[in-house]
Amino acid sequence: MWVTSSLTTALTPTAVALGNFDGVHQGHKDVVKPVLPVLHSSDVRSPAVSTQGGRRLDNGLLIDKEQDCWESDYRISASDRPLPTVVTFNPHPREFFTGQPRALLTPLDEKVELLTALGVEQLVLLPFDREMADLSPQEFVEHILVRQLKARWISVGQDFCFGSGRSGTSADLQKIAAKYGVEVAIVPIQNNEGERISSSAIRQSLLEGEIERANQLLGRPYTLIGCVIQGQQLGRTIGFPTANLELPANKFLPRFGVYAVRVSIDKAKQTETASKTNTTPNTVIEENSPIITPIKGVMNIGHRPTVNGINPTVEVHLLDWTGDLYGKTLTVSLEKFLRPEQKFASLEGLKQQITADCLQARSVLS
């Protein structure tokens, strides 16, 4: 996938799915579908010729720091076929207007992975600033979608709003784009068992510990993806070693407490990372170890009140599995909320409860 935050480096022409797409839930998938082509055998993809001047990321993308864009291991062959493209905003408009950081259901790397799996070949992250916020609906369509992205057709959700003060509706977009010969597909609002599918509904379900409901709306389990880092190693002293996950700083966390989970161990990667303020490219050495079949586990999210913890942590205990996980990337799929976080009078009391949590998790995941 080609990922860029600069309109000058966007590949054109495009077929555009427009929106925020946080969560890439079932409703979002329906918005993406109209821009996906039926791939023919004549479509040729060739390897990218060089990674000079860029750096390889863990997800296989190449980021070119000078051009502010990423590239996957292939480039689309030169043709007039509109590139299936998701256009979204960075930062999220609510974050821009409130000035408050917004936790995301799918931080960028996770969003890229999910959109790639759907068949999207380009992600354009429009910088949302005052200039962008002040564009009228007419200006947004003409200058951004038509002139710069050369959109051949566009897909949006029925409730999509755009332009200064959110004054433009999906119907307005359809009318304005028609002046330029651009067709707009308006996708009806999707429901699941009578409830509207939305990122807000998913967030609320997660905050309430209603994991099954959140997963239904997403169309897949909610996941936490992070690298295993050094912890206090308290778990191993009571017979329950845990992997401490370092998540993206802007990852949305569900209700604090204990969960039954399934854990996948991704390919081992050893990364020599330069400082973010240093322009020296990173070096990534990938081992050929396969992704391991998901393992049953128990996860705790919270402050660990029994040991007077301060900062929130994410700790995972794998059932019936032992090994060295330091430096590896885990994908933790949440299946069921078991209980809220609580403080125990002693480590022995905590140990007894974890034993019960593991038994319950086995039952839930069997």
Structural class: alpha+beta
Order of strands in the sheet with most strands: 4-5-6-1-9-8-2-10-13
What Rg, in angstroms, do the CA atoms define? 22 Å
Main pleated-sheet profile = 9 strands, mixed
Q: Estimate what percentage of residues fall within beta strands.
A: 25-35%
Global geometry:
elongated
Q: Note the quaternary state here.
A: single chain
Weakly predicted, low-confidence segments = 39-68, 70-78, 268-290
Number of separate helices: 10
Helix amount: 10-25%
Secondary structure tally: strands = 23
Domain Riboflavin kinase: 217-366
GO molecular function, one term: riboflavin kinase activity
Family: Belongs to the RibF family.
EC number: 2.7.1.26, 2.7.7.2
Walkthrough of the structure:
Residues 39-68, 70-78 and 268-290 have low confidence and may be disordered. The chain has helices at residues 26-32, 93-98, 108-118, 130-133, 137-148, 170-178, 199-207, 211-218, 234-237, 347-365; strands at residues 2-4, 14-18, 45-47, 54-56, 62-64, 69-71, 74-76, 83-90, 122-127, 151-157, 161-162, 168-169, 183-187, 191-192, 195-196, 223-229, 243-246, 257-265, 269-272, 283-286, 295-302, 313-318, 329-340. A hairpin with a 5-residue loop joins strand 4 (54-56) and strand 5 (62-64). The protein is of the alpha+beta class. The radius of gyration is 22 Å and the shape is elongated. The protein contains 10 helices and 23 strands. The longest helix is centred in the C-terminal third of the chain and has 19 residues, at 347-365. The strands form 6 sheets. Strands 4-5-6-1-9-8-2-10-13 form a 9-stranded mixed beta sheet, with helices on both faces. Strands 16-17-22-21-18-23 form a 6-stranded antiparallel barrel. Helix 5 (137-148) crosses helix 6 (170-178) and helix 7 runs antiparallel to helix 8 (211-218). The two termini are 37 Å apart. Helix content is 24%, strand content 30%. Belongs to the RibF family. Pathway: Cofactor biosynthesis; FMN biosynthesis; FMN from riboflavin (ATP route): step 1/1; Cofactor biosynthesis; FAD biosynthesis; FAD from FMN: step 1/1. InterPro entries: FAD_synthase (IPR015864), Riboflavin_kinase (IPR023468), Riboflavin_kinase_bac (IPR002606), Riboflavin_kinase_bac/euk (IPR015865), Riboflavin_kinase_dom_sf (IPR023465), Rossmann-like_a/b/a_fold (IPR014729). GO terms for molecular function: FMN adenylyltransferase activity; riboflavin kinase activity. This is Bifunctional riboflavin kinase/FMN adenylyltransferase.
